[in-house]
Amino acid sequence: MAYMEKISLTTKFEGMHDVTKQVQEVVKKSGIQEGICVINCNHTTAGIIITSFWDKRGHVDFQEELDKLIPLRYDYHHNFDTPTDAAGHIKSAICGTGLTLIVHEGRAMLGSSQGVLFCEFDGPRARQFFVKVISD
Question: What is the CA radius of gyration of the chain?
């Protein structure tokens, strides 16, 4: 048995968006008690990560450190639209565009301070990601 939903959101420029609640709601709606939850973002300048969600300043730190590693600049070889576009591709590849969580007792298993974040590395844009829950 499997269940899938598409979740839409509007992002801010280089914003971190806590989507933990939406993911848990999809798992609950699925009715699946034991299995896995796959989260997939189908964009080349966005990503999905798990990190602490209690202190939002941590999201700012994460984005600032990524910007230090992969700065916005004009000398990328694949500069499609803007410097944020090329840098966003690299940030997305490093962070990843999907993750898998264990579903146990009808919930996606996360630590007490963990959350699922949708990371916008360009934007602002209308975005989407998919959550699929698969039973054991």
Answer: 16
Tokens, residue 71: 């700065």
For the segment 34-76, what is each residue's pLDDT rounded down to a tens digit? 999 999 999 999 999 999 877 778 888 888 999 999 987 767 7
Q: What is the pTM of this model?
A: 0.91
Query: H/E element holding 29?
Result: helix 20-30
Rounded CA separation 16/76 (Å): 24
pLDDT tens track for 75-96? 777 666 666 688 889 999 999 9
Set out the domains of the chain in order of their start, with CATH numbers.
2-135 (2.60.120.460)
DSSP for 81-102? Answer: S-HHHHHHHHHHHHH-SEEEEE
